[in-house]
Design brief:
Layout lengths: L6 H27 L5 H12 L4 E2 L1 H7 L7 H10 L3 E5 L7 E5 L1 H23 L4 H15 L5
Antiparallel strand pairs: 1-3, 2-3
Helix pairs in contact: 1-5, 2-5
């Protein structure tokens, strides 16, 4: 028989989910107001820029994304159409495909970071001391070690 969560744990869970949703909405609003594409675009461009040779297989990109991404194919298509990424055939396996960041994609990611980092500071950094942020990070780290279903 499994133990039920305490009232405190349930309250913590509810607050965590609500805060995450509100913060994402606020950051998305700041990016849109500055004329940038959605946060998922930034996340994909960041992961591509961090990868060796600036390219990942689509499935690898999906696994690396910080945000939940259920339609990676559509996101990749939009990045390619915007000239921020390109599809490349795998040299070893002609059937394999990579998504690679372009120079325009690197430039967009850097420009978006200016607005994104300001949003992080406005919505999080300005409300927490560095000590509070470190403590919260440590606590959330405990949760990130939870096994996936």
């Amino acid at each position: 028989m499994s133990r039920k969560p305490s009232a405190e744990t349930t309250s913590c869970w509810t607050r965590l989910v609500r805060v995450q949703q509100r913060l994402l909405v606020a950051v998305e609003h700041d990016l849109k107001k500055a004329g940038f594409p959605p946060l998922a675009w930034y996340d994909a461009l960041l992961e591509l820029s961090r990868s060796p040779h600036g390219a990942l297989r689509p499935v690898e990109l999906e696994k690396q994304m910080l945000l939940p991404q259920y339609s990676t194919s559509r996101l990749i298509e939009r990045l390619v159409e915007a000239g921020l990424a390109e599809r490349q055939t795998c040299p070893v396996d002609g059937r394999g495909l990579y998504v690679a960041i372009t120079q325009a994609g690197r430039s967009m990611q850097k420009k978006m970071w200016e607005t994104y980092s300001a949003a992080i500071e406005r919505h999080v950094g300005s409300k927490l001391s560095n000590k509070d942020a470190a403590t919260l990070c440590e606590l959330l780290g405990r949760l990130s070690s939870c096994p996936s279903p």
